[in-house]
Amino acid sequence: xxxxxxxxxxxxxxxxxxxxxxATVSRVLNDPGVVSERRRTAVxxxxxxxxxxxxxxxxxxKSGRQKMIGVITGxxxxxxxxxxxxxxxxxxxxxDFLVTITVVENGDPDHVRSAVELVLSQPLSGIIGIEFDxxxxxxxxxxxxxxxxxxxxxxxxNRSGLPYAWLDDELGARLATEHLLALGHRTVHHLAxxxxxxxxxGRTYGYLAELAARDAPVPPVVATDWAPMSARAAxxxxxxxxxTAVFCFNDEVAMGVLRAMADQGRAVPGDVSVVGxxxxxxxxxxxxxxxxxxxxxxxxxxxxFEVLRATMAGAPPPTARAxxxxxxxxxxxxxxxxxxxx
Amino acid sequence: xxxxxxxxxxxxxxxxxxxxxxATVSRVLNDPGVVSERRRTAVxxxxxxxxxxxxxxxxxxKSGRQKMIGVITGxxxxxxxxxxxxxxxxxxxxxDFLVTITVVENGDPDHVRSAVELVLSQPLSGIIGIEFDxxxxxxxxxxxxxxxxxxxxxxxxNRSGLPYAWLDDELGARLATEHLLALGHRTVHHLAxxxxxxxxxGRTYGYLAELAARDAPVPPVVATDWAPMSARAAxxxxxxxxxTAVFCFNDEVAMGVLRAMADQGRAVPGDVSVVGxxxxxxxxxxxxxxxxxxxxxxxxxxxxFEVLRATMAGAPPPTARAxxxxxxxxxxxxxxxxxxxx
DNA sequence: CTGAAAGCGCTTACAG
DNA sequence: CTGAAAGCGCTTACAG
Lengths: 342, 342
Fold this sequence. Notes:
The first copy, chain A, is of the alpha/beta class. The first copy, chain A, folds into three domains: 11-54, Orthogonal Bundle (434 Repressor (Amino-terminal Domain)), CATH 1.10.260; 65-168 and 296-325, Response regulator (Rossmann fold, 3-Layer(aba) Sandwich); 169-295, Rossmann fold (3-Layer(aba) Sandwich). The first copy, chain A, is 41% helix and 15% strand. Chain A contains twelve helices and twelve strands. Chain A has a six-stranded parallel β-sheet, sandwiched between helices. The longest helix of chain A is centred in the first third of the chain and has 16 residues, at 79-94. Chain A is elongated and about 85 Å long. Mean pLDDT of chain A is 90; it is low at 1-5. The first copy, chain A, binds a DNA duplex (16 and 16 nucleotides) through helix 2 and helix 4.
């Protein structure tokens, strides 16, 4: 613990020590170029000696803006949200912005409203929504148009209409589906979360599109929820016995499917190939290693921050920034047993 | 997008509409009891009609404190940190506090200093450090004593000496070790992260203590780092062929060990029992389901917030709040093959 | 119970 | 380039 004066030094203390007016100190802080070198040096010395630190509340009161951005997000315990948040935080910190988070995880109007009120009570510079679901969209809809706002999204999830950066999960799904088809599977089955719904998910669309493009039969989509054990149950109940390839909504769903296969004594990839989505850190550790699509969530967070920064600077409506996913092939996918068919 | 006046309404607008002074409006906001019912109602009506929202920057400027707490944490992408953050955020939101996060993930003095500077530039009400590693401890050491601060810790990690809440991972390790010994294993091996080091970890201590208490032989501790695949490598290289039970530092390490066993053709739990630590959501999905120790990280976050709240209220140095872990038995642990020995 | 007034720590026209 | 002064939106003694 450093010892400190009872009251933190203010701009007036600096001015006194440097023998200048408070206005000059303020200028040194905000626009050093306009101050003569002599005084500038004197002020900077005083700042260091006093350990002066600007009071952001006072700055915010004057300017109406604070060097702080708000992030509205779903459950930060989930891999995607956590990683995007990570990227935002890094980019923000580099730009000297602090990040405040507000979790919105259901559609209850009271919950959404109070969460937004809480964020808006602060003089934020801007807001980023991690718009992967409808709850965040609902929260974003309550933010006044005067507040600079940007969004991190995936295909089809950017329902707020705000400037955004996005991850092309539709492309990722096509890569995954194509990979399986190229291996010789007659078709590919799919476990989808939150399907059917009015948002739709790029990864489900991409899967369907790739099947169509290659004239593969389209099996019924198997619906599940986020919980891996629900995916396990859905796989056991709805995946046909002759399925040889399964493309999963995300890695956690894939892990549930892998568990289902193990419990049923079906070999992976011998009897069935399983492909996930996201490439979370544990994907490679699973037995067998999970073939999946790598999504650069942290990059998405950084890109969203750049979009917000442009918006804050009053730039023309910034273009969306897309991040390309890539396929990561590991042990869980292979050729079907009877691959040698015409 | 709601349409809004160019400038947000202030306390003066409310006062005008309600026909009272600004002082009265302020009182209604902060201490409604002292205002007569008639005026109070008038003010509250005006607040609603105007959509008035207090400007926290102005409040902070007067009081020197803002309804915002800062969280200093390690990589929020990791399960433990993310879950504690989660608990803090929930508790804070219920108390109408906003949460700001700053990630400190290495010991570089410049990094630590600038991270702390950034946090301190805000008129925070208080700070919580998720003190699971030395980097957060280093950051906490730079916070002036005048700032209310609390910590979320585990056994031995609370090196800052600040008021804290903690998770008794030493007890958890004893439960896990005892479980394995009670199953009939002659002894238990251990993969430890960050060992040996001057902090030490409660879970490693607890394991050692339980072995000693039961007069079991003490095999050399196998060192690994956080990455599951490193744990896999360490297990393959250093775990003796006759090991029948392994207690792992955390679930991710255990997953690496499970992978090592699979790659070596050793059956779990037939040939070797594996126990993890933390009970992350995927632990039950693994094949076989992972026996582990459940750690209530979110509860820890909430408890840390309570400790901070007491500190902010100027209460006597709050007592530490302990959270008990519990053993969760699943498929990865069982009796050794030759269990029927004296 | 209520109002007039000072002041929190800055920034920013306005003069010079 | 520099300083004196007003003001950002509140809270809080101080009188009454």
